[in-house]
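pasting for the record
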Amino acid sequence: MKGLSLTLILFFLLGTTGTKAQEIIAHRGYWKTEGSTQNSIASLKKANEINVYGSEVDIWLSSDGVPVVNHDADVTLDGKKLIVEETPYATLRKVKLSNGEPLPTVEEYLDTFKDCKNIKLIIEFKTHTSKDNEDELARKVINMVNDRGLQNRVEYISFGINFVQQVKRLAPEAPVYYLNGDLTPQILKKMGLTGLDYSRNVIKKNPQWVAEAHDLGLKVNVWTVNTPEDIDRMIELKVDYITTDEPLLVREKLSK
């Protein structure tokens, strides 16, 4: 009887520790809620409040070398479009987000993130018009992360090969994912990356990449997964992370 009980206990422990739960990443923070908007300080805080795995954020370098938070390559100020890379920070600071916040700097974002203990920060380096700008942005942001002791809580993603290579060089222990969807898991493994972070359409066309990545010891993240049908499909494929604008819906689906 004692032998049987020990066997059952071991089976339970192996069963519960051998399967890792799928995780949720809030796309541009948790912004579909009152007082929030995409890539805002509020969206970061609210992602922390709902206790998901991570909050994603998009970053650029201003013309005078200040890392700032924004998704698009341009912003609108007084009805005029301005290219972020070609605009000094003092001008970008005048841009107001839809919730009234000024356009944030990466420093402000990281300072807020220090107190967000429930989540990781997923930093997307947006591809720039020059390699020099990309190298400067990668160097400055990784230094900011290191100076604040946040190395173990930050992950990096990019569509740009140069960016993922720079992160691997500057922060070799950091998780780094490639976004563009054009490289197989085998190539990403040879590059030394943590995994792939591809759109739902790429994964639906190449579902075998999930198992292939896992066999290679790589992680799989998928974006931006918002509809019930797509959420169900990604759960079925056993991807590791689901990046979504609907984190509460994904949580509800996962709980079932």
